[in-house]
Amino acid sequence: GSLLYLDALRTAFPQALAPRGTALLSWTPGHPCTPAGWPLPTLYCTPAEAGALPSRAATLWVQLLFALRTRALRVLEVGLAAELHDALAALRNGWPALAQDLALGRLSPQPGLPEDVRGRLQALLVPDATRAAELQAECTRGFEGIVQRLWPQLEVVVVGTAYGTEQLYYDALRKGDCKGLPFYCPFYRMAGALLGVNLWPEEPAPRFLLCPDWAFFEFLPCPAEEEPRTVLLGELWEGREYGLVLTARPGEYRCRAGEVLRVAGFHKQCPVVEPTRRESQALSVRGESISEERFFQSLCRTVGMWPGARLVDYVCVESALLGASSGACAPHYEVFVELRGLRDLSEGQRYKLDQCLQEDFPIYKSFRFKGSIGPLRLHLVGAGAFARLREALGSPVPMPRVLREERLLQLIQSTVIS
Length: 418
Fold this sequence. Notes:
Blueprint: H1 2-12, E1 22-25, H2 56-68, E2 75-80, H3 81-104, H4 115-122, H5 129-140, H6 146-150, E3 156-161, H7 167-175, E4 183-184, E5 187-190, E6 193-197, E7 208-210, E8 216-222, E9 241-247, E10 255-267, E11 270-278, E12 282-283, E13 290-291, H8 292-303, E14 310-318, E15 333-340, H9 347-360, H10 362-370, E16 377-380, H11 385-393, H12 406-413
Parallel strand pairs: 1-2, 2-3, 3-4, 15-16
Antiparallel strand pairs: 5-6, 6-7, 7-11, 8-9, 9-10, 10-11, 12-13, 14-15
Helix pairs in contact: 2-3, 3-5, 3-7, 8-9, 9-10
């Protein structure tokens, strides 16, 4: 799979495999590796040790510093779109300190960065006043398109995951900090197994060729039939959606992966798929089952009605998870939102989301009319709340949008501002 990825990358972007031309922004605590799964030491300008620190925030800061010192980058490789989003947020808030470290050739102490590791990494740095001045000049101009301005020879951003819950960050990056750059998501992974590869780096929407001998695939047609029967690779129809049933390796359990795929076409005789949604990520306090994907569409439509607002991040929970703190009303949705460009919302603006959900989901409107589902409650959280939540997850995997863990909910509640 890694060889297919490298060949596709080189074909589309001829200079992408230049020595030391790739910078890595990815947190892999305890075991340094790359999202591409191919640890080529001559390819990366990022020290392997920088990716295995115990703190996610410290990891991204150190990797960002090493990326900034290399002006001639060709590829920026990230495990998750959220990691690039958080690293660029750290750049936005801390570029004066980064510029100073570049100028002095040092690595300042960071929370979560062991002193012995800091010493070894600092030995790799040398003073570069010219690059520090360039960083200062570009950040002073603003941050739209900042990635291409800081690395003018950059050809592509390689993202380990750019679908599902990562789509929000992916879209925000393409419209803002990474404006003008192509994104390439090379692999489709599920249940710890590599299932498919994207052979089309220059296409904006990722689609993956399922490789028949990498796992044993079965598929359940969607919507579900009365007597569900799995079909195999050779029985798929273009344009249809299927739930994935997976046996990743011989001897492992056969299970429903919880992923829904759409067949986008065929490469020779092999299906090419697009992941569309996760079956487990749905809100359902009365059996209405609103999927994460469709809830997100309603939320984006609502944010468009709030002048000047831009959605940074969100999670939603069913009120039962809050217990007594959710009040005595009927079961309802609690939504936590981080916005940019808007400090507060009126009650009328907050109600717009509930109104959009009623317009988009007749079953939700019916339950609201009967009073069996209470009015949605919308909370604004402080800047950086979701970056801290991702750190608390303690795992380099996409963050769920429908929260079901009480400890994570308590963390996000502590950042509510209104």
